Amino acid sequence: MKSLSSLSILAAALLTSAMACVAADLPVNKGLVAVGRLPADLQDSFGETFGSGSGMSVLDWKKTDKGYEGSFLLLPDRGYNVEGTTDYHTRVNALSIAFAAPEAGKAATAELKLRKTFLLTDKAGKPMTGLDSVAINKDNGPELPGASTGAVSLDPEAIVRLSDGSLMISDEYGPAIYHFTAEGKLVSATLPPQAFLPMRKGVLNFSSNNPGLGAPKPDPEDPETGRQNNQGFEGMALNPSTHELTVVLQSALRQDGGDKKSTRFNTRALVYDATDPDALKLKAEYVVPLPTFKDKEGKTLVAAQSELAVLPDGRLLLLSRDSNNGWGVKGDTSLYRRVDLLDFTSATNIAGTDFDGLKPVAPKGQLDASVTPAKLATVIDMNDNAELGKAGLHNGAPHDATDLSEKWESMGVVPALDPEHPKDVLVLIANDNDFLTTKGHQVGADYKADADVDTMVLVYRLSLD
Fold it and tell me: Which of 129, 178, 247, 463 is the most exposed place for a label (fewest CB within 10 A)?
């Protein structure tokens, strides 16, 4: 007979094994339950064309007699792109959402309302700008991207609301992480390790090769090392229990194969201790293997990650997609739009190693043999026409406003508040409509895009049981 201590050890081992199995279980997708829209020509509180979701942070959520209602922040990016960037003042929109419990086989219609808009400003109260960086701004802490106007250049991509109401926002120009007050005034900024910083001819240069009117192009057009143009911190999420703030690059660094679309799949994630949001401490760094897929000609393509969200059990969801397909752009059929479970459990922590300097972790896309990457497993396939059909939507022809738009870039997770299924959650996913409308107005001028792309929010239900 085993001793009590031996039995305890055995029980602990079995429990640990069981917990590992549970951790490996995928959430179960229970399908699309609601869809909401805002018209493409909607104007925000400043009378400019409303841009939708590069980032999302849910403020509150409750169950009602009819269904659900809540509010959330939606983060537009740097403004409508014409021939380069414009002096669009970066901002945050606050919205409400409400929808009834869906009928079987159908998705409910969600009511979306814009409640207010507020600007993001630097420490002196000067609005930040969507203009591409042409200089270094040294007035707000570390060396930051600076515009020709003297403002901080900001291409915001993800937003997290902290318990005190203040905001963490990640951007592509740096890439950087910014801490703002609840009202949108800059408190501090954090730059990543050296490996991430865009260098041209040995000099820090934050340009994304999208100069404003009259501004010069960078030389060379692409960085030699660091983040690729327009491929910065696209996704960010906070685990409120551990205070871990995780950010992910949209695709691989230049030295890690990011100089070619076919080899840019080994991107990186940084995990910070955000107990003090003004003194972020790097805890971990992982290689994230972006999803790959085949096009119609059999060519392998890499999906760009677009957002990160945290589940109540601490696990992470990663949203990735293809490009140039969907309503508002030329192609009608998307080949990849999915939400994957992102697992760092067995991945190699490369924080503080030579890989944080100029040593590539994946030269020409080939991952260093000493490094084990994170793992991905699909949870939601957004291109599933059986689910989209519940709301009269589809992926592919006919190429009209019921064809999902190209970019889906923001995500939020809330509890389903169902006593019979206490571990169920709802996942809100919003598109980035790129300010596309035939009746646009921004930075003091009217404009006309080729299509009207509505802001949309899709709501899926997942079970974590």
Answer: 463
Sign of CA dihedral 405, 407, 410, 412: positive
- Judged by phi (left if over 0) then psi (alpha if -120 to 50, else beta), residue 417 lies in left
Tokens of residue 405, six digits:
């738009």
Q: How far apart are CA 146 and CA 417, in angstroms?
A: 45
Residue-level length of the chain: 465
CA distance 148 to 133: 7
Look-up: residue for tokens 């490369």? 350
Q: Long-range contacts of range 192-195, CB-CB < 8 Å, 24 or more positions apart?
A: 192/233, 192/247, 192/270, 193/270, 193/282, 193/285, 193/351, 193/356, 193/357, 194/356, 194/357, 194/358, 195/225, 195/226, 195/253, 195/255, 195/355, 195/356, 195/357, 195/358
CB contact set of 269 (below 8 Å; sequence gap of 6+): 246, 247, 248, 249, 285, 286, 287, 288, 342, 344, 374
Cβ burial, residue 265 (10 Å; 0-12/13-18/19+):
buried
Mind listing the pLDDT tens digit for each residue in 38-73? 999 999 999 999 999 999 999 999 999 999 999 999
Q: Among 224, 205, 203, which Cα is nearest to 134's?
A: 205
pLDDT at 82: 74
Alpha carbons 95 and 135: distance in angstroms, whole number: 34
**Dihedral angle over CA of 208, 212, 217, 221, nearest 10:** 20
Cis peptide before 211 (omega within 30 of 0): no
Question: Percent helix, strand, coil in the chain (nearest 5)?
Answer: 10, 40, 50
Q: What are phi and psi of 113, to 5 degrees?
A: -135, 135
3-class secondary-structure state, position 14: helix
HSE, side-chain direction, 13 A CA sphere, residue 334? 26
Structure confidence at residue 465 as a pLDDT band (50, 70, 90): confident
Residue 11's contacts (CB-CB under 8 Å, 6 or more residues apart) are none
Residue 99 is encoded by which pair of tokens? 């929808």
